[in-house]
Amino acid sequence: MIKSKAAVLHRMTTDRPYSLSNPLRIEEVNLDPPGFREVMVKVKAAGLCHSDLSVIDGNRPRPLPMVLGHEAAGEVVIKGATWAFGVGIVMCALLYDKHFFHKGGEENTSDLFNKKK
How crowded is residue 56: how many other Cβ atoms within 10 Å of its Cβ? Predict the structure, then answer.
């Protein structure tokens, strides 16, 4: 297991400011090492977007607890199987589309990236 810090949403609320209602907590989470066609990115910068705020205020309900954030920039530090490129700098924004699906509660997983060739 790999330990990491994440902004974890424990409850949806419209009570503002969020700095007082505290729906998010920064917590240590355990991650599996990267698997097939996965990488681990050491995040250098991240943000919450309007989609994340819509989850926090309950307009886009999701199962809780949940790690928010899908826009980040950082450095690839560990590669899973099948990756041919070297370690480097990346920027990513996961966009959900018609191929999006839930796999074991992992909302950041799209079947477009998980098909074995």
Answer: 22
